[in-house]
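How it folds:
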Amino acid sequence: MKTILLTGITGFIGKNVAKRLYQNYQITAIVRPSTAVNRLSFFENKVKFVEIDLTDIKTLKTFLDKNKFDYIVHIGALRGGRKFSKEDYHKANVFSTEQLVLNAMKNDSKLLFCSSVGVFGAIPLELPANNLSPRQEDNYYHKTKIISEAIIQKYVLSGKLNAYILRPAIVYGSGDFGFPYTLIKLIEKKLLVFPNKPFRIHMTHIELITDAFVKALESECISGKQWIIADEVPVLFSNLVDFISNKIHHKDYPRNRRIEPFWFELGIKVSRFFKNELWVSRFELISKNWFYDVKEANEDLHLKHFTTIPSFKTVIDWYKIEKN
């Protein structure tokens, strides 16, 4: 049985990827020493756990020097909007990636790196964003992903590394408490306010990104491939809001919750003035276009096709169960 070193198994994407892989691969997963046991209970006796914080580069290097794997699936990272120092972000997201790259080269392992469409910025400068679109270091999390991708491509170009980069958009599915959950909650309480103009957003079904990782493992595409992973087409934000509202309140969302775009532009300016990256992204994500070109990923990996409406219903159904 082939071996995989996996980071990020306690996260939403990592957990679902591991559930697809553990029966066919021998998985060793790196987890933080403080990880609660219940977060790992599903994988008991199915996955070998190694307690290493990704900011602890010395311990990570010592472990890697003594081990080799057929594949390295690097999903773990400190996500944006959290209260960590830039030093910790850099250690966990950049230095750890470099150590995994070096181990992959040493042992001729295939590396899969989970990056983010955030490398194009929260709001891309070009639509639909594609692999050649301008990068934007609009927050430190995005900057670390850009740097990590550059490290990987540097070694790929040297001919010494076999690696692929997968960039999911915001992921939705049962069990995640991120942006989709918050959106549903705001709509349920009728607290969501958004601009009275049409704009499109582009999200990723959890089964789509897991399918991409599974197929990328055995892919024979040339090293260095970069894939943007998102649903088949973007969706009008207002249509998604009405879809959610109809599933919860059995009617469209109130039209008086739509306001002039000026107020969102003001909110973005104020948030930037106070250097609050989290609030800048919150204002932007529900007021501007963000969508991507997914043709290359679909052609190379023959991925399943998902449309956000009606696929988003799975999150709404889970939300109803979770809040009761």
